[in-house]
Write a structure and sequence with these properties.
By secondary structure, this protein is an alpha+beta fold.
Length: 175
């Protein structure tokens, strides 16, 4: 096994474990990934409407869910309805991996960052729409992106929005 294929295998394993542990319990398999969804399909599962016209309440619920998931909020603008956040995870390597990378003069990943951008806006006369997207970045020791790609998993977004549903209920109840 080459260092590059070993590195890819390690990154893939860390990614699967990260997603599985942070958002939903599921079985991890070696099945090939499903085809990427179309832009319209992505927009469909990245978006949810809520039966409240109170955008500030919805934004607060989204913010609380992200914080509960371990995200650090970078920016929030209630006028624009924009919220950005990220979650950092350190990547641990075995001594063997470190020695092999040093020998082959290849970079090892040191962090995985999950970025989130949320757009919260009034929709119609009685609803608020939330569109959220997540992107994952794999960084080297210098903080440079080694890989970056959007999260395309519909279940990932369904799980996120089910937590937002609960968060909105708690906000409305004053909890």
């Amino acid at each position: 096994m080459t260092a590059v294929s070993h590195w890819h295998m390690c990154c893939r394993t860390v990614l699967y474990m990260f997603i599985a542990c942070t958002l939903f319990p599921s079985c991890i398999s070696d099945n090939p990934p499903p085809p990427q969804p179309s832009q319209l399909e992505m927009r469909t599962f990245q978006t949810r409407e809520y039966d409240t016209y109170d955008g500030k309440l919805v934004m607060k619920a989204v913010l609380n869910v992200l914080q509960d998931m371990g995200f650090i909020v970078n920016s929030a603008d209630t006028d624009l309805g924009l919220l950005t956040a990220n979650r950092w995870t350190n990547v641990e390597h075995t001594r063997k991996e470190i020695k092999q990378a040093q020998k082959e003069e290849t970079a090892l990943s040191t962090s995985i960052v999950l970025d989130c951008t949320a757009n919260i806006s009034e929709f119609g006369k009685t609803q608020t729409r939330v569109r959220v997207n997540f992107q994952q970045r794999v960084l080297d020791a210098g903080g440079n992106a080694m890989q970056a790609y959007p999260i395309h998993d519909a279940k990932f977004y369904q799980t996120f929005f089910s937590q937002v549903d609960k968060g909105i209920f708690l906000q409305q109840e004053g909890v």
